[in-house]
Amino acid sequence: MQQIVNFFLRNKATLLFLLLFGLSLMFTIQSHSFQRSQFIHSANFLSGGVYNTTNNISKYFDLIEENNKLQEENSKLRALVFNSASISDHSFIDSTYYTKNYKVTPAIIINNSYEKANNTLLINKGIQDSLESDLAVISSKGIVGITRNLNSKYATVISILNTTISISAKLKQTNHFGSINWNTKNPNYVQLTQMPKIAPLKKGDTIVTSGKSSIFPKNIPVGIIEGFKLDNAENFYIINIKLFNDMTSLDHVYIIKNQNKKLINELIDLENE
Q: How many domains in the chain?
């Protein structure tokens, strides 16, 4: 308390000046219309600027929530597309076929490597989100990889920039198919091998997933043909594909779960015995 009293005693002249200045300013504004209008204009300008800045800051932080909502909506739309596509592949459709074959879960990449021979990604979804290993991971532009190891909250993804991965893909126009691999030379390109030499290839053709596995649905974009050559035996093409995805700059992804994957794999295992 004594310190407060001492402060006022030390600064009494300054405080008295500020008080008198404030009173004179108030009386001037009240008694003169011009000064009053100018003051109100300045006050409105200042308050408007403060409110605008506050609103912009609020909108910026709301973007996170809005992005999450948009990603959830995109997941639902993608699930509808994949399920509709799987239904349309059947020449005869009855009511028993109208089931949800694919479940789509949005996720965010929190770590991404692309400079190694065997690259992986880390996403912020795991077992508690009904994920498991060997699920397709895509972005809005195309394929990203396949889920591998999981815990309750997180999962690792084998990137398509990984020498251990092989994904079935095809020419969009003709359905000739082969296997996607990566030669480790450039993160913007992958290679499509085992493409039969009778396939009518040309630069710029689009490559998509073939759907010939229980992991990736059919027709997910991969990239475009940049060049091709025959292998040493001259039976198959080796095709260089420029990816639609920029694998060095990924953020939001979608995990696709084939609800029938277990049933499909059980039959495949029986055939391979």
A: 1
